[in-house]
């Protein structure tokens, strides 16, 4: 399945909905799109909704880490929406579930006030 | 079920390019469908095998003619997977992945698979061998179905 990316801006929070498989082939396209959203909208908080991501590899995880770094350097933060146990396990074994704020849905991620 | 003969090894050779990684995942899922492997485990194997392929593809950056070879076979109560490329042969090998991504990939492979052996040498290319246990013969869908039909 081709990667589908949709986004919306609510106040100072950008929500990016990602659907499909993220691998070495399309991870750069994902990075470019999200970086473009961050640069254009300048959100204080970026929510990446991964509920409909069926597959993610180390390249995709590396992209998420890079985007997180970028957000922190800009004084913002990143939150992830992950619900599937399968995806949760991948984040657990790589230790990334301790690095990212993980939420059950986008509304829960938005509801918590941005840090700072 | 008798030990699988050498001739039943499944082999796939594809260009060492990222656009073929999905094909690898489809093959892995199709191959594992012969056994009653839980769907989540199939997904984890897809991740691990694909990570091994990422290593090979990452080392083959700039090698247009490079191929990636995947072999799958049954070995008793487990399935073996081997990913191999010979990136060094074109003499242009240069990693296309960050150290961070390489570390994450290795972590995933080692966490999700069993008995992992890997070598990555700039001069010899990448070779990863790993295994995954499968349900016992009494639980195997294909065997049970065949038995039922034979009666």
Describe the secondary-structure layout.
The complex is a heterodimer of chains A (116) and B (151).
Chain A: E1 4-10, E2 13-22, H1 27-41, E3 45-56, H2 58-73, E4 77-81, H3 85-93, E5 101-103, H4 106-111
Helix pairs in contact in A: 1-2
Chain B: E1 10-15, H1 21-32, H2 39-59, E2 67-75, E3 78-85, H3 99-112, E4 114-121, E5 125-133, H4 141-150
Antiparallel strand pairs in B: 1-2, 2-3, 3-5, 4-5
Task: List the keywords.
heterodimer; A: 116 residues; alpha/beta; 5-stranded mixed β-sheet; 32% strand; globular; B: 151 residues; alpha+beta; 38% helix; 26% strand
Describe the structure.
The complex is a heterodimer of chains A (about 120) and B (about 150). Chain A is an alpha/beta fold. Chain A contains four helices and five strands. A five-stranded mixed beta sheet of chain A has the order 1-2-3-4-5. The longest helix of chain A is centred in the middle third of the chain and has 16 residues. The mean pLDDT of chain A is about 95. Chain B has a five-stranded antiparallel beta sheet, covered by helices on one side. In chain B, a hairpin with a 2-residue loop joins β2 and β3. In chain B, α1 packs antiparallel against α2 and α2 packs antiparallel against α3. The C terminus of chain B is likely disordered.
Structure summary:
The complex is a heterodimer of chains A (116) and B (151). Chain A has 116 residues and is of the alpha/beta class.
* Integer-rounded radius of gyration of chain A: 13 Å
Number of strands of chain A: 5
Multimer state = heterodimer
The helix-strand sequence of chain A is: EEHEHEHEH
Q: Provide the structure class of chain A.
A: alpha/beta
The residue fraction in helices of chain A comes out at 25-40%
Arithmetic mean of pLDDT of chain B:
81
Note the overall shape of chain B: globular
- Helical stretch tally of chain A: 4
Give the largest interface: A-B, 17 and 26 residues
The largest sheet of chain B has its strands arranged as: 1-2-3-5-4
Biggest β-sheet of chain A: count, sense, barrel? 5 strands, mixed
H/I helix tally of chain B? 4
Share of helix of chain B, binned: 25-40%
């Amino acid at each position: 399945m081709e990667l589908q990316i949709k986004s919306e801006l609510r106040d100072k929070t950008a929500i990016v909905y990602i659907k499909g498989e993220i691998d070495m082939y399309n991870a750069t396209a994902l990075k470019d799109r999200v970086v473009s959203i961050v640069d254009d909208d300048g959100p204080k908080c970026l929510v990446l909704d991964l509920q409909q991501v069926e597959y993610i590899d180390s390249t995709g995880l590396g992209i998420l880490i890079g985007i997180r770094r970028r957000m922190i350097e800009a004084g913002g933060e990143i939150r992830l929406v992950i619900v599937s146990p399968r995806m949760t396990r991948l984040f657990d074994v790589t230790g990334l579930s301790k690095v990212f704020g993980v939420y059950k849905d986008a509304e829960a991620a938005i509801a918590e006030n941005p840090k700072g | 079920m008798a030990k699988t003969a050498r001739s039943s090894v499944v082999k796939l050779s594809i260009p060492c390019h990222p656009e073929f990684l999905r094909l690898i995942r489809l093959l892995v899922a199709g191959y594992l469908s012969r056994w009653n492997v839980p769907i989540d485990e199939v997904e984890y194997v897809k991740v691990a095998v694909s990570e091994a392929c990422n290593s090979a593809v990452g080392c083959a950056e700039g090698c247009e003619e490079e191929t990636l070879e995947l072999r799958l076979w049954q070995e008793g109560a487990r399935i073996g997977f081997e990913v191999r490329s010979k990136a060094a042969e074109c003499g242009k090998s240069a990693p296309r992945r960050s150290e961070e991504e390489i570390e994450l990939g290795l972590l995933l492979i080692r966490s999700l698979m069993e008995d992992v052996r890997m070598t990555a040498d700039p001069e010899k290319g990448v070779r990863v061998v790993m295994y995954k246990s499968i349900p016992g013969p009494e639980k195997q869908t294909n065997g049970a179905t065949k038995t039922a039909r034979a009666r």
